[in-house]
Amino acid sequence: MSFVNVNLSENIAILEINRPEGLNALNTEVLSDLLEAISALHEEEDLRALIVTGAGEKSFVAGADIGEMSGLNSREAENFGHFGSSVFEALRQIPCPVIAAVNGYALGGGFELALACDIRLASTTARFAFPETGLGITPGFGGTQRLAKLCGTGVASELIFTGRRVKAEEALALGIVNKVVEPDQLIDEALEMAKAIADKAPIAVAKAKQAIYASEELSIEQGLDLEAAFFAHCFETQDQKRAMKAFLDKEEFHDFQNL
Questions:
Q1: What is the pLDDT of residues 48-96, one digit of tens each?
Q2: Which residue of 33, 102, 141, 170 could cross-link 1, Cys pair, CB 3.0 to 4.6 Å?
Q3: Cα–Cα distance between 160 and 80 in angstroms, integer?
Q4: What is the pLDDT of residues 165-210, one digit of tens each?
Q5: Collapsed DSSP state (helix, strand, coil) of residue 174
């Protein structure tokens, strides 16, 4: 993969978009590399947390590549949109939690990549925007859907219609990001969170992630039924039995085995 680096250490992976000379903009090659990396990570059974970031100090991902998009006809554009959306949906469906570490510009497709992650941490230099309407297009990789679900239609409408840039602190206030830190602390903060997640029961975390996303599609009654089923499933695991025994014995327990 020319444009994506993956560093896997024990049960935590860092995926880095590596096209800094183009501000990590997403063209077909970058998206293909990203899909290959995501597909490989799906096969890592011991993976407990994933961090997604961009190479360099200026940009997380500065959007889809305008140079490539400018020559597309409507059929080619639809295929490109479906491809980008499918890559981001594959990322969202990784069973373990995915943390976006947003350093610099997260514009258009970069904003959409961050929204496809479960948790978003931002450096103080982060800038979020959907500039698409100023280019005569709409967001094409899931932005209209994921931002509206995350922040409501009012916030999504304003940001997408106007294309204005949002600084990190405002993104925090709007609920787009979970935390803002200094640039030199970003990866350390993401790793600290990833380690805290990795220290928990992986089956329980994966089931909780499934239940959270299912809540977007299910009625409250259906969601509660699903939650009860996942809750019950955890009682079939050795991790639950060992952790609860340790609790009752007043012992520390961190040795979750995904069993």
A1: 999 999 999 899 999 888 989 999 999 999 999 999 999 999 999 999 9
A2: 33
A3: 20
A4: 999 999 999 999 999 999 999 999 999 999 999 999 999 999 999 9
A5: helix
Question: Per the confidence metrics, is the pTM higher than 0.70?
Answer: yes
Residues marked as catalytic: 112, 132
Cα separation, 73 vs 250, in Å, equals: 65
Q: Choose among 79, 78, 77, 147: nearest CA to 108.
A: 147
3-state SS record for 122-171? EECCCEEECCHHHHCCCCCCCHHHHHHHHHCHHHHHHHHHHCCCEEHHHH
Tokens of 236: 């079939």
CA distance 201 to 191: 17
Question: Are the beta carbons of 85 and 146 closer than 8 angstroms?
Answer: no
What is the distance between the alpha carbons of residues 137 and 37, in angstroms, rounded to a whole number? 28
222 contacts: CB under 8 Å, gap ≥ 6: none
Return d(Cα 111, Cα 145) in angstroms, integer. 12
Report yes or no: 51 and 187 within 8 Å, Cβ to Cβ.
yes
- Position 126: which residue type? A
- The DSSP string of 94-124 is -SS-EEEEE-SEEETHHHHHHHTSSEEEEET
* Cα 106-112-116 angle, rounded to 5 deg: 120
Could you tell me how many helices (H) and strands (E) the chain has, helices first? 11, 10
| Segment holding 210, helix H or strand E | helix 202-214
Of the candidates 179, 182, 61, which has an alpha carbon nearest to the alpha carbon of residue 112? 61
Q: Are 246 and 256 in contact (CB under 8 A)?
A: no
